[in-house]
Design brief:
The protein is mainly α and 478 residues long. It has a domain of 111 residues: Winged helix-like DNA-binding domain superfamily/Winged helix DNA-binding domain (Arc Repressor Mutant, subunit A), CATH 1.10.10.10. Helix content is 71%, strand content 1%. The protein contains 24 helices and 2 strands. A two-stranded antiparallel sheet has the order 1-2. Helix 8 runs parallel beside helix 10, helix 12 packs antiparallel against helix 13 and helix 14 runs antiparallel to helix 15. It is elongated and about 90 Å long. The protein starts with 7 loop residues before the first helix and ends with a helix.
């Protein structure tokens, strides 16, 4: 049951029908946002709000439309009711919260052997209540971090979201300081920063993670979080050319920290990211290759085939940029495919796409390239963005052979259909441009103009706009 309250006056007016004893019970039971009847009875008893009549008080409160089921086993008062009730506690609020927290911790011990109960949810509520009180804040943050690390390991996105929401109530912003972060604040900023990063909120991620990195202490845990934070900040900076120098420094500092705490897997991950960054500059391809090889060496010692497969893919992409090393690139792609686990279908799909692009550079291997693209489409059929990219590559390949221009058109159209579904403006621009070039070769100038204009609708870069306008001008002259 629930009822919508428009303002505090309405809530206060409605609650006037409750007896003073019921109102006091409501105020106390509004402190936690998770209850079951047994716990509610304990809270009323331990806070002195009931005198052997706790069960009756709960039944009476539940006869009013001011609560709702939280899960199958738990219930809670509506948010607007809780907010009103917590304000009404006034000066007695701290003492009440302390007693409620103690009751919940005591009740938690009884739940150890109850596998059907959601223990994690109960722990989250204890942590949430704990961080609201100075004397228990440290314990609450540690409990959140334990749950967050488990959720991150098993990709439990909803748990991460809830933890971020609860922590934000007490720590909405990062607070820069000249001093090293306390253990508690470092944990808070790391959780908030990592959650923001995973949700592509990069500005917020940097505001938290940069402090975890720069304001670390010398403890192993602090340096571990700082190494991860520096790595993630580097990944964000590596997205913009103007920040590549800062990204490189972040990666190198992350490597130093990973070495200090003796974490070879962390080092391998950062070397991989550093290699990807350096491979963007032709003058640094040699350094990029060394970074990839450092990563592979560490991963081989750790017997980590999945990690090796990812790095071999990146190494293949680097080597494929130089014609004299295409054979080495091919071997790197094949090595990546060999190392992929049987059920890593999307990983294989990505490698087949890259392999197909390499093979399409040699006329004698166009058929193999086509097969690679088809393998990629089949293995990555559930990933729309990936399919769109592969259809684009397949269209580019087929457009090289006049007898297959019709198939090339279909591939481009398939790619555009998927990209428009996702509103991927950059992708639409690229595929529309490729398609327009094919239509010009076919002397279908009317439709070529349509797709050039479509690309112009999304293209912002002056250099590429100029190229598109030149294409348009050439069509007018035909």
């Amino acid at each position: 049951m629930s009822v919508e309250m428009t303002n505090k006056f309405d809530i206060g007016y409605m609650l006037n029908v409750l007896s003073p004893e019921l109102r006091e019970s409501l105020y106390v039971l509004s402190v936690p946002n998770l209850l079951n009847n047994h716990l509610a009875e304990k809270i009323l008893h331990n806070t002195g709000k009931a005198n052997g009549n706790s069960q009756k008080l709960i039944e009476e409160l539940q006869s009013f439309p001011i609560w709702h089921d939280r899960t199958i086993k738990t219930w809670v008062f509506d948010d607007d009711i809780r907010e009103y009730a917590l304000e009404e506690l006034n000066g007695s609020g701290i003492e009440i919260r302390q007693k409620v927290l103690a009751t919940m911790k005591g009740h938690r011990k009884e739940l150890e052997n109850v596998p059907t109960l959601d223990i994690e949810d109960f722990d989250l509520q204890i942590a949430r209540l704990s961080i609201g009180m100075e004397e228990s804040k440290k314990d609450g943050i540690q409990k959140f971090r334990q749950i967050f690390d488990t959720a991150n390991r098993y990709n439990l996105q909803e748990t991460e979201r809830v933890i971020d929401l609860y922590i934000e109530e007490k720590f909405p912003k990062s607070s820069p300081s000249d001093k090293p972060l306390t253990e508690e604040l470092s944990n808070v900023y790391f959780m908030r920063g990592l959650y923001a990063y995973k949700n592509n909120n990069f500005g917020k991620a940097i505001s938290f993670l940069a402090l975890v990195w720069k304001k670390r202490s010398e403890s192993d845990e602090s340096m571990k979080d700082a190494a991860i934070s520096a790595h993630l900040v580097g990944l964000i900076w590596s997205k913009k050319r103007s920040h590549w120098e800062k990204a490189e420094k972040a990666f190198k500092e992350s490597l130093e920290l990973e070495e200090k705490i003796d974490n070879p897997f962390g080092q391998a991950q950062v070397y991989h990211s550093l290699g990807n960054l350096l491979s963007k500059e032709r003058s640094r391809w040699g350094e990029a290759e060394n970074a990839f090889k450092n990563s592979l060496e560490l991963l081989k010692k750790l017997n980590n085939p999945f990690g090796q497969a990812q790095v071999y893919h990146s190494l293949g992409n680097l080597l494929s940029k130089k014609r004299s090393r295409w054979e080495e690139a091919e071997e790197a792609y094949k090595q990546s495919l060999r190392l992929r686990e049987v059920d890593d279908f999307f990983g294989q799909a990505q490698v087949y796409h890259s392999f197909g692009i390499l093979l399409s550079k040699e006329r004698s291997r166009w058929e193999e390239a086509e097969n690679a693209f088809k393998n990629s489409l089949e293995l990555g059929k559930d990933k729309l963005h990936h399919k769109a990219q592969v259809y684009h590559s397949l269209g580019n390949l087929l457009s090289k052979k006049r007898s297959r221009w019709g198939e090339a058109e279909n591939a481009f159209k398939n790619s555009l259909e998927l990209l428009e579904t996702m509103n991927d403006q950059k992708g639409i621009t690229m595929v529309s441009t490729s398609y327009s070039r094919l239509l010009i070769n076919k002397e279908d100038f009317v439709n070529a103009k349509v797709y050039i204009k479509k690309a112009l609708d999304y293209e912002k870069d002056k250099y590429y706009r100029k190229q598109l306008l030149n294409l348009l001008e050439n069509i007018k002259n035909n």
